TrEMBL record:
<protein>
    <submittedName>
        <fullName>Sugar ABC transporter permease</fullName>
    </submittedName>
</protein>
<keyword id="KW-0812">Transmembrane</keyword>
<feature type="transmembrane region" description="Helical">
    <location>
        <begin position="140"/>
        <end position="161"/>
    </location>
</feature>
<feature type="transmembrane region" description="Helical">
    <location>
        <begin position="108"/>
        <end position="128"/>
    </location>
</feature>
<keyword id="KW-0472">Membrane</keyword>
<comment type="similarity">
    <text>Belongs to the binding-protein-dependent transport system permease family.</text>
</comment>
<feature type="transmembrane region" description="Helical">
    <location>
        <begin position="72"/>
        <end position="96"/>
    </location>
</feature>
<keyword id="KW-1003">Cell membrane</keyword>
<feature type="transmembrane region" description="Helical">
    <location>
        <begin position="261"/>
        <end position="280"/>
    </location>
</feature>
<keyword id="KW-1133">Transmembrane helix</keyword>
<dbReference type="GO" id="GO:0005886">
    <property type="term" value="C:plasma membrane"/>
</dbReference>
<feature type="transmembrane region" description="Helical">
    <location>
        <begin position="182"/>
        <end position="207"/>
    </location>
</feature>
<dbReference type="InterPro" id="IPR035906">
    <property type="entry name" value="MetI-like_sf"/>
</dbReference>
<feature type="domain" description="ABC transmembrane type-1">
    <location>
        <begin position="73"/>
        <end position="280"/>
    </location>
</feature>
<feature type="transmembrane region" description="Helical">
    <location>
        <begin position="12"/>
        <end position="36"/>
    </location>
</feature>
<dbReference type="GO" id="GO:0055085">
    <property type="term" value="P:transmembrane transport"/>
</dbReference>
<dbReference type="Pfam" id="PF00528">
    <property type="entry name" value="BPD_transp_1"/>
</dbReference>
């Protein structure tokens, strides 16, 4: 009887996770299908998981300025890679120093790091700092610096470094290892789960950021992918509204692949970043539990 209950509970758990997985996968498949469906077919037949009338018009419209799209991809990839690496380096070094008892004024430094959680200066001071003081407006560094430090990530890494036995650090010092070598050769390799988890979230934040570019970027060569796609969607909405005002609804729909283009931009935006999940999966599960249990 107990064995049957266990089998039934496992079945319920498996079915629950299957349903949750389908709830995540099916919308993505529907988005891909819509992006390859003819616009007229979408209006007449509705959404389908398999295109009734296959068409690449949406992608042709998005890639009509192929040079801009490729340049935006290059900017976004550069900002994401450099920003994520710098974020992980700064976060891990600061978090490690906050866990070492021999650091002078460690408690005051911890309070200074935690202070932004309580008080946030807001957008106006940030704009003045980046444009008037640091003179980073219309530079690629302004896209990087906005997510360079995160108090939450510092606290997460700090809790993880606390789990490293002090005896391990002391053994390295006895063997003649300095602080920098101990950090890079012992502490940092042991923190791969936390680095992978934090790095994934930071990379997604960099990849999806378009607000920073709208505030600080004027040069077309420095526009990231999300900002370019956002501008493309605004242009589609503007052109479609004008077309509907001067022509019939049918003619307006036939002129612009508005719905398909929206879904095509979604595919282009999430395609590269979603490939990170399989690569970091073995670290991601372990990293989610960091700081959940405190001894």
């Amino acid at each position: 009887m107990l064995l049957r209950k266990l089998h039934f509970s496992k079945l319920v758990i498996h079915l629950t996770f299957i349903a949750m997985s389908l709830a995540c996968i099916l919308p993505l498949l529907l988005v891909v299908s819509i992006s390859f469906t003819d616009e007229r077919s979408l209006m007449l037949d509705g959404y389908r998981f398999w295109p009734k009338e296959f068409s690449t018009a949406a992608y042709q419209y998005v890639f009509s300025g192929a040079g801009s799209i490729l340049n935006a991809y290059a900017v976004t990839i550069s900002v994401t890679v450099v920003g994520t690496l710098l974020h992980l380096l700064i976060t891990s070094m600061l978090s490690y120093s906050l866990t070492r008892p021999e650091v002078t004024h460690r408690k005051a430094l911890t309070f200074f790091v935690y202070l932004p959680v309580l008080f946030n200066g807001g957008l106006v001071p940030q704009y003045i700092l980046l444009t008037r003081i640091l003179h980073l407006k219309d530079t690629i560094w302004v896209l990087i610096i906005v997510y360079l430090v995160s108090t939450v990530n510092i606290l997460i890494m700090k809790n993880f470094f606390r789990t490293i036995p002090d005896s391990l650090i002391e053994s390295a010092r006895i063997d003649g290892s300095g602080e920098i070598r101990t950090f890079f050769r012992i502490a940092l390799p042991l923190s791969k789960p936390s680095l992978a988890t934090i790095g994934l979230f930071v990379a997604i934040a960099y990849w999806n950021d378009w607000m920073t570019a709208s505030l600080y970027i004027e040069s077309q060569n420095l526009r990231p992918l999300q900002y370019l796609l956002q501008s493309l969607m605004n242009n589609i909405g503007y052109l479609q509204s004008n077309a509907q005002a001067s022509q019939s609804m049918e003619a307006a729909i036939g002129m612009l692949p508005s719905e398909g283009a929206r879904m095509a931009t979604c595919v282009l935006a999430i395609g590269p970043i979603i490939l990170l999940y399989p690569l970091l999966q073995k670290y991601f599960e372990k990293g989610l539990t960091i700081g959940a249990v405190k001894e």
